[in-house]
Amino acid sequence: MSIELEELHGARRSNIPPFIVGRCPASFDHQKAVNQVICRLAVYKTSQCLWIASLLPRNMVHVLTPPPENPSHSDIIWLAGPRLLGLLFNWSLLGVLTTQVYIYNIGFPKDKVALKTIVYVVYALDWAQTCSATYDGFQWFVYGWGSIPALYDMYSCFLNVPILSSIIGAIVQIFYGWRICIISGSWIPFSVVILLALLQLGGGGAVGYYIYHDASEVARSSGLVRAVGIRLGTSATVDIFIAVSMTFFLLRSRAQALEHTNNILTRLMRLTVETGTVTAIAAIVDLVFFIKAHNGLHQVSGVILCKLYSNTLLVLLNNRLVLAGETSHHHVHTIGESFRAAAPHSTDSEPTMDVPLVDLSAKKASGDSQFV
């Protein structure tokens, strides 16, 4: 990608990570460059997604439960409308996730291979889930436009909603469990998280099995309802358990930490509670709508649940940029006014963003944070 620097001369610098600013010419418009990269990547990936969707067969599953013979106008609206909104939210959150992955890629090139693998595997699975959901959208609103049976069929929903979402959710939940293990120094919470994550993964596989053998929106067999209850109920449970456990162990570490470390712990606690609450609420809303509302409302939260998990993972990892900036700011202010007057701040002295995850284990009596 070529950018004419002459056209960008004199442009105002935007809020781009400092390490990017420090390595580029002063006349370089970083925001425009980042926007162009993201837009071109999105267009390229979208064309790939639509091409893959066009290659998929029209009939992937079996339909045993017939659709209503004469659905009302309201029934059609409450079935098609939530599906359309779910697709729009899905693509929007995928765009947010793409930006997060881009920031992670350029901000943490020295992260461990295992951590990078988790990030890129989750990102690839999210693209697969979006391609599958887009395929369903084409069946409902393009190939099957005006057909009531086509609107009530679920096509590849057995793959993108329960199976891929459960896999992504389990990966993120187990990662959070590993962080709890490091912070607490105990394997018990980690074991509980793994058990619950695998249980919801098994529930997702069971839901996919039932939907594959009866891919009808009106199908509500007892086995399907139980499987959905296990998957979403367990998912909400493990999210709440993670949020409570992280908060408890971070509070315990905070009691032994220094003043500046307290600020870091407070931010981590707030971030953990917020992200855990979002995913837990989405799972609960999906479960309630599936059981109580016999329409497409449950698909709004169901189809975007995996994107919420992925974005919470990247938010946690990229939050180290903020923590690194605060740490650098704190050290600058502890040097003293005279030293700072003699050594003025410049963009070249910005801290590097290759910041590893922080070990805030309570077993360290000093209370200082350690990088792992």
Automatic annotation (TrEMBL):
Transmembrane segments: 88-106, 118-138, 158-178, 190-212, 232-251, 271-291
Keywords, comma-separated and alphabetical: Membrane, Transmembrane, Transmembrane helix
Protein's name in the database: DUF6534 domain-containing protein
One Pfam family linked to the record: DUF6534
DUF6534 domain segment(s): 235-320
